[in-house]
Amino acid sequence: MDTPVPKNAEDEARALAAAEAHHASMLHRLDALTAALTHAVKTGDKVAEHDAHAVLVEWCESELIPHALAEEGPLYGGPGAAVEARLLVAGMLAEHRAVAGLVERLRAAQGVDAAVAAGAIGEIFALHLEKENNLLMPFIVASDEFSLADAVAGLPDLVGEAHIHGTHGTGPAPLRTNG
User: Fold this and answer.
1) Which one, of 175, 140, 178, lies nearest residue 14 by Cα?
2) Domain membership flag for residue 144
3) Is residue 118 included in any domain, yes or no?
């Protein structure tokens, strides 16, 4: 950790913007899926509830949990060993475990219990993203020891496919993948 990481400020800014955009997209999708499930439960539409529940569980399994797992190595590894960020990372890992537990609860739940679990996942995830966007990633960008661009390079679970493959239109340039 004593060796400074050579990094490019533009790469770091692109990585931060890509991760924040991916987070916003994920939260928007989670909110929409939760709203669909909650609406179906409130209106007593069992078919819509079943479908919304299935889609939400599938999204959690294919998007949310893989995102969390992808963060735990490259994004959390270095800062988790740094005195200045150790407790933050430990708390964020605890949030990952809480979300995973709630996904398990959601999978087994129906009706109001499913809507409550979905809402809890959304609340914890929103708070978690706020910490990543406003505390952890700025710490990494400002650090001489770590590189956010290197941590997320080639990992679409952390920044979204569009930023990895450069298919995002007029947004930031694709992240380098030779990290």
Assistant:
1) 175
2) yes
3) yes
DSSP string of 73-116?
A: IIITHHHHHSTTTHHHHHHHHHHHHHHHHHHHHHHH--HHHHHH
Q: Is residue 71 part of a domain?
A: yes
pLDDT tens, position by position, 58-114: 999 999 999 999 889 888 999 999 999 999 999 999 999 999 999 999 999 999 999
Residue positions counted in the chain: 179
- Indicate if the alpha-carbon torsion angle 168, 78, 73, 124 is positive or negative: negative
pTM comes to: 0.84
Which range of residues forms the domain containing residue 48? 9-165
**Residue 4 burial class via C-beta count within 10 angstroms: exposed 0-12, middle 13-18, buried 19 and up:** exposed
pLDDT of 26 strictly over 90: yes
Burial of residue 73 (CB within 10 Å: 0-12, 13-18, 19+) is: exposed
The CATH number for 71's domain is 1.20.120.520
